[in-house]
Amino acid sequence: MTRNSDYAALVAGQHNNPFAILGPHSGPDGRVVRTLQPDAKAVDIVDTDGETTRCASPGSPGSSR
Hints:
Structural class: alpha+beta
Number of strands: 4
Radius of gyration: 12 Å
Strand order of the largest sheet: 1-2
Order of helices and strands: HEEEE
């Protein structure tokens, strides 16, 4: 689990390794993709086959969506 200080550093643009947190990662239920889109209403993820997945309800830091 990522610490709150990591999220604070990301938001401030001061994290020394943002891709340790952001981007695709293995999770307990498969792959997860973390993004930092503070004003987004939705996020679309496009895989290498061109398939699009919409995350209609982006979650708060630490959530799985």
